Amino acid sequence: MAAIIKHRLFWPAVILVVLLVTNVFFSGSFFKVEFRDGHLYGSVIDILRASAPLGLVALGMTLVIATGGIDLSVGAVVAIAGALACLRISGLDDQNSVTGVLLAVGLALLLSLALGVWNGFLVATVGIQPIIATLILMVAGRGLAQLITDGQIITINSSPYKMIGAGYWLGLPLCVIIAVGVAVVAGLIVRRSALGLLLESVGGNAEASRLAGIKSRWLILIVYVFAGLCAGIAGLMISSNVSSADGNNAGLLIELDAILAVVIGGTSLAGGRFSIAGTILGAVIIKTLDITIYTVGIPPEVTLLFKAVVVVVLCLAQAPKFREKFQRRRPSAPATQAPQQKVEVTA
Amino acid sequence: MSTTFESLQKRVIRRPQQRHIPVLATLALLCVMYGAGVVRYTGFSDTQIVLNVFIDNGFLLVVGVGMTFVILTGGIDLSVGAVVALTTMIFASLVRAGWSPIAVLPVVLLVGALIGLAMGSIIHFFDIQPFIATLAGMFLARGLCYVISTEAIRIDNALWTSLADYKIRFGGFHISWSVVIALVVVLVGAYVLAYTRLGRNIYAIGGNQQSALLMGLPVGRTKIAVYTISGVCSALGGVLLTFYTSSGYGLHALGMELDAIAAVVIGGTVLTGGSGFLFGTVLGVLVLGLIQTIITFEGTLSSWWTKIVIGALLFAFIVLQRAVARRTS
């Protein structure tokens, strides 16, 4: 029992359950999942669908954060990928041509990879602090996205493209399948090989791992490229879901939600410890929170307030210093801790 | 000492200290941009153009001052834009409820200070990263805006309108009260950073928090203080924004934290803390303002070029900082 409570994902899981149960009180049929027209319908499916893009972005962010970095530019990459794909498709003679759509998608993903390389180059080779290096693309990227769309909202009418964000396969939403697939592949690669260990060691102490013979430069480059790719896929999902690209608003503030999901999932922002399952759980929590607020009937504008409360509560619950104060109330000796640079959660 | 050529070279050419190079680079950039503007566009040489940059960016200047304090300690404050919006919202709603603007002023400054104080306390007492704590502050402040109202609220107050429209004239030019207030804030901030114990503590913490702690400096108090200062500056920035827009709205100052951070970085302050000047931030704000002016003068360029140019400048300055830091170490 104690082991369960102490598990890293215990509190996030409790919050998710509380949110889901709250929903049942306000909407009795919340957990009802129907099978209609060969598709699954229901609120739970909706939550999963809404979580897919965020989960993907957060997945890339997790690995970046594991190396002690951060990627602020994902929102801009989301907008750029969607904008480029929609621009290419809108220029097609036949917007329903599968090859044309695949070409557009490939091009958009290639550009996202290139943007990831740019971020990785700045961080790994030039040696710029990650938060600053990615700030450049965060600011300039929005401009680029608007440049691609010429400041307009590009609307398209392409059923193959629509599949990515709103389609179904085997009764399940395609975007969920894609997101889960990427997460599983990433999880297998990272945890079944030494890669994850290497990433954590770079995040724990980049200099020490370099001395230990780890090529941290390549690892760092790879995680930013992966984050760019994930953001690109998410950008395609988001723009395909609404069949349009909005350079200004697509993926706005998604970097903050993604970082939030990563933190909720128990990954330390200081680097060196990460959990992919936790991140996915975090993304689902955030989207469940959004939907709960709708079902309960609270004005959606207040969502942000709730998010603020959740962030503070979760961060405090995970903060070693807070736990210490909470647990060591009994002993008479005041907890005089030596200043620690990097503190591990007692897990 | 007799001045041989070498020592003269040392004195004249190596005179700018390493830590001044980024600020000097910004100054040079500003001069080049202004010069290019004057050559290229008719009417650009009018001094009023420069004054207008100040008038249009007074609030950003005030917010930038607070951001400089935070970044000098090695932290970051993402909540500034949201606090600016919350200030305009509280201001507008209280004025609509019949309060005098003069009475509202201390209220909004207090709210800003409290939000900053709360974030600083969370950061210090619980060791939460500034990024996350101020992100929560950002959500909180924007959320509170929408709780007050989802619509924009006009500020209809004779006193406020006359203050906002008042032009301080001298020699054919004019500035607004917001410029005066912003410059006063800059001067006070520069004095605090350069000549007070708090200022030196801020630089010490940004340089190396561990050493500062071992030296017995009040690290916790100073950290909480900078976030409180940033909160107050954001609130004051919000007040200045109401001069400019005469309204309160939850979507005001969206993404302003990026502009403020960009201004601080372009102004030569190192984002890891410990090195930088408030004067640089003033230059950074001027660069941002001048980019917008040039794009307006150019006429054919669309507004999104502003973002691309700011991004390119950020890149250039960050690489410059890296180069300087490498040579020093």
Automatic annotation (TrEMBL), chain A:
- One of the Pfam families matching this protein, by short name: BPD_transp_2
Q: Which domain of life is it from?
A: Bacteria
Spell out the molecular function terms from Gene Ontology: transmembrane transporter activity
Q: Which CDD domains match?
A: TM_PBP1_transp_AraH_like (cd06579)
As for subcellular location, the record says: Cell membrane
Region (Disordered) residue ranges read 328-347
Q: Where are the transmembrane segments?
A: 9-27, 72-91, 97-118, 130-148, 168-190, 218-238, 250-269, 302-320
The cross-references to InterPro entries, in alphabetical order and at most eight, read: ABC_transp_permease
Listed A to Z, the keywords are: Cell membrane, Membrane, Transmembrane, Transmembrane helix
Q: How does it sit in the membrane?
A: Multi-pass membrane protein
What does UniProt give as GO cellular component? plasma membrane
How is this protein named in the record? Sugar ABC transporter permease
- Could you tell me which species this protein originates from? Dactylosporangium siamense
Automatic annotation (TrEMBL), chain B:
Q: Which InterPro entries match?
A: ABC_transp_permease
- Localization terms from the record: Cell membrane
Annotated GO MF terms: transmembrane transporter activity
UniProt cross-references to Pfam families, sorted A to Z: BPD_transp_2
Q: Which domain of life is it from?
A: Bacteria
Q: What are the record keywords, sorted?
A: Cell membrane, Membrane, Transmembrane, Transmembrane helix
A Gene Ontology cellular-component term: plasma membrane
Q: What is this protein called?
A: Sugar ABC transporter permease
Q: Which organism is it from?
A: Dactylosporangium siamense
